[in-house]
């Protein structure tokens, strides 16, 4: 909970978070948040996190996390040669990420992405990378700006190695202390 009135990011609670006014301009994402996200959370197939504004807790953004796997053959050869010879490798899927259209330009997409990456890094479950399936060129551009790499044979599937995520937060921590 926020004590200073700033937006907070927390697991979706369908009883507390008002999702009714959320509209990112992509019907499938709007519909998912409003009617499917709660079910996915209850069934434990995805963990939906929402960015909500106190005191009403109107949802202004969200993302989902779940476990996935990558075939070693999908990954760039230079990356795979540093790994054990497993045919399937554990990863985390950042399945959806959206910001309300009325909130665009505030950097909230980056805030949500960094929160998701931090949660993935802190997870006690093994994960080699965070994977995203970008919906369009704008989404691909967003993830590439955040140094996600394209999988060689899947134009819309990108990944960010957990080692790079760890470096990102270690660098941020050093800069904060300096």
UniProtKB/TrEMBL annotation:
Keyword Repressor tagged: yes
Catalytic activity entry: glycyl-tRNA(Gly) + acetyl-CoA = N-acetylglycyl-tRNA(Gly) + CoA + H(+)
A matching Pfam family: Acetyltransf_1
Protein's name according to its UniProt entry: Acetyltransferase
N-acetyltransferase domain: residues covered: 92-148
UniProtKB keywords: Acyltransferase, Repressor, Toxin-antitoxin system, Transferase
Listed GO MF terms: acyltransferase activity, transferring groups other than amino-acyl groups
